[in-house]
Specification:
The chain is of the alpha/beta class. The protein contains 13 helices and 9 strands.
């Protein structure tokens, strides 16, 4: 089955070339994801006949759990599934390695997937259609956070609100539009190679860094409303803190590398951390030092109550702690990167256990 359309960004008379499933390379970076990878791959393989013609590559960063065993077992069921080593460990280097080793001349579209995601049937088809229709350098998707009842569900609820995401267009958004950044999905391979792919030194925020370079080179990023991604939240508070600490460091990495200014939604968590630290010092001298911490605690408490009511479950009370963990970890990770004396003028992020 080939995907064809006559509607494009260049007008109804311009018919874009067709995209066949054999033109598509799908890449999933993985590291110690035995708990998620089979469900992810099975969701991605639907519909089987069409997806069976795509080349699907798992770039493993040195997993020490059963991840590679699960993939090898699935490869006996899905012959188009391939496992390669990712010596760089990071997701960024994993995608680059897969393109370098597995992409052939016939491949025109790169689809990057996340092992923590659950994909709707026809996901890759929808991306190929949007790429052909819009002729954009990149197609990104909206994300809907999900999780099992309890902490994950509460964290999923808050992360898709403006308080949790800062109003990012791809976090729970419903509108198709050109954007500056979004959850990475499909890349025109010519564009990907032209700008050098991902920065392999990036352990986190490699997608935003890529988008920044892409826009500077004239590439356009299309947020589609034709398909969405369900993203499974981290299982506990400690894992969420690690994730957002790394997110904050990754954002600071990008801003430092390209000498750009953060947006307001990105700097607010940093301001919050600074205010809390300053308040701690001020509280030694005056009760006014307790003003901001008290107000912030009220925000978190109100978030917990709202989530418990909306979710009709007391487990929703986890939403406040999850929000605080995201804000504080992101802000502290950002500041740590900027203030760490060992940076030596360039980014050196070492991520021992997980990439996302």
């Amino acid at each position: 089955m080939e995907i064809r359309t006559r509607d494009s960004a260049d007008g109804p008379e311009a018919a874009p070339p067709s995209i066949a499933p054999s033109d598509i390379l799908v890449v999933l970076p993985a590291l110690n994801e035995a708990a998620h990878i089979e469900e992810c791959i099975r969701s991605l393989m639907r519909p089987g006949k069409w997806m069976g013609q795509c080349r699907i590559v798992i770039a493993d960063g040195g997993s020490t759990d059963r991840t590679t065993n699960v993939v090898r077992s699935l490869a006996t069921e899905f012959p188009n599934l391939h496992l390669i080593d990712n010596p760089g460990r990071f997701q960024s280097s994993g995608v680059n390695t897969a393109v370098r080793q597995m992409a052939e001349q016939r491949h025109r579209l790169l689809v990057r997937c996340d092992v923590h995601a659950i994909y709707p049937e026809g996901y890759v088809q929808a991306l190929a259609l949007e790429h052909a229709r819009m002729r954009s350098a990149s197609v990104v998707t909206a994300m809907d956070a999900t999780g099992s009842p309890g902490f994950q569900q509460a964290a999923a609820w808050i992360v898709d609100t403006p308080l949790g995401s800062g109003g990012s267009a791809h976090r729970g958004g419903r509108k198709a539009q050109f954007v500056d950044h979004g959850h990475h999905a499909a890349f025109d391979l010519d564009w990907f190679r032209r700008i050098g792919g991902y920065d392999p030194t990036m352990s986190h925020n490699e997608d935003a860094e890529y988008d920044l370079r892409l826009r500077r080179c004239g590439g356009r990023i299309w947020l589609t409303d034709q398909t969405r991604v369900g993203y499974v939240m981290r299982p506990n508070l400690a894992a969420l803190c690690r994730q957002y600490w790394n997110y904050g460091r990754g954002r600071a990495h990008t801003l430092s590398k390209h000498k750009t200014r953060p947006r307001l939604r990105q700097i607010i968590p940093v301001i919050n951390v600074v205010l809390l630290l300053a308040s701690g010092l001020l509280s030694v001298l005056t009760p006014l030092g307790f003003l901001w911490p008290s107000l912030y605690l009220c925000i978190l408490f109100g978030t917990s109550l709202t989530a418990a009511i909306r979710l009709n479950n007391l487990q929703g009370l986890w939403a406040g702690p999850a929000l605080g963990a995201m804000h504080l970890s992101w802000g502290m990770g950002f500041l740590y990167f900027l203030l760490a004396p060992s940076r030596n003028g360039h980014v050196r992020i070492r991520n021992r256990a997980e990439q996302r």
